[in-house]
Each structure stands twice: as structure tokens, then as C-alpha cells.
Amino acid sequence: MESLTGQHWDKLYIAGGGAKNATLNELTAHYTGKQVVALPIEATAIGNLKIQMQI
To answer: 37 pairs with which residues across the strands?
Structure first.
């Protein structure tokens, strides 16, 4: 995404069920060099609801 948008992010926010996987989060941080922030697993459903209500 960074190469496509020309923007840079220092953090990656992981939402949904994958956020519970500590090993995946650690590997993601290691291979991207970014801080990984695990959000609550409910974040996916709440975000989806928010988008649905805006349409």
C-alpha cells in the first residue's frame, strides 16, 4: 500500500479474529519493521456496521 499511495505508516492495526494470534502479530511486526497494534476482535463487526450505516 505504501508504494501505491506514496504514504508511510509507522503502525499496522490488526482487527478481527487475526488480532488474537500473537505469533502472527509478532511475525508481522518483525517482517514489516512496523509496530503492530491488535484491536479487539469486535472491531471488524463494528467497522462493518459503521460503513453499512453510511451508505
So the answer is: 13
Walk along the chain (55 residues) and give the pLDDT tens digit of each residue.
899 999 999 999 988 888 899 999 999 999 999 999 998 877 777 777 877 787 6
For 44, residues 6+ apart whose C-beta sits below 8 A from its C-beta are 15, 16, 17
C-alpha cell at 7: 504514504
Distance of alpha carbon 29 from the chain centroid:
11
Of 43, 41, 18, the C-alpha closest to 28 is: 18
Looking at the chain, the number of H-run helices and the number of E-run strands are: 3, 2
Q: What is the largest CA-CA distance in the chain?
A: 37
